[in-house]
Amino acid sequence: MFGSFRNNEVTIETQEENGGKTVINFRIETFGDVTVEVYYPPKDKVKLSCPPLLMVHGMFGGGWYFYDWAMFLCRKGIKVYVIKDLHEGEDLAKTDFYTYLKKVVRIIDKIYICESKKIIVIGHSMGGLITQKIAERFGPDFIAGIVLVASAPPKGISAMSCSVAKAMRKHLPALMFNLPLKIDRESTLKLLLNRLGGNERKEQIFQKFVPESSRVAKQLALSRIPVDEKKVVCKVLVVAGFYDKLLPQRSQLEIALKYNSTPRLFLVGHMPMVEDPRNEIINEIYKCIKYNF
């Protein structure tokens, strides 16, 4: 895989399993106060019938962990927007969940103006809860469907577990005084990267995590964000990990039941975008999008 630059655009050439090559154009756009990475599929593979897709990352993370999935979907002919960093430009001592939600709302408004068509939203962890709120707000005229990957649950569904409570106790001063929260290595390895192979790979991923708002952490851990399921009328796909140590499996089942959906359970942890078999998982998501959304 390699890339070349031209007029703020990167051309990425990827090697396919069958020996062929696919060329993908990649641009970095600024949507208000948020940087968004846009992946353009090859012209010969563009699927005009398939809506464009937006990816929303979770706590401590960024768009970097969606790269493989974005490339996969792009090779299938789908235009993909990836939010680079919701924390960008924020004072984490004052930021809360709705700060991030407002950013994503503005991004979707702009995408809709540019595309003049419905979009699909994939959200991971915190991004999954943001995605639920997006579906609640915009309705079926804007949103073709949503994919909730290891999603943080809304109010009424508990996200708390013994392991999460134990991890939070390590950061009580930050949580009490709303200081920026940096997840510790032990909690990261046990809760987020428990299914990731190789110590070097784990360390590389850990170093990419960024500080998070303590307010957001408390809002999610205590399930304080309500979502009216009656207003979520688009298609919903729930993707859960059998080995997810951060979110209880029952929470993912309850989310699926809330939206009259059937959860898809994979033998992965909380970070299926960087775990193996990540391509198999995104392929299953793609097939669901292709045939059901």
Automatic annotation (TrEMBL):
Pfam families: Abhydrolase_6. Residues 53-280 form the AB hydrolase-1 domain. InterPro entries: AB_hydrolase_1, AB_hydrolase_fold. This is AB hydrolase-1 domain-containing protein. It comes from Candidatus Terrybacteria bacterium RIFCSPLOWO2_02_42_20. The lineage of its organism: Bacteria, Candidatus Terryibacteriota.
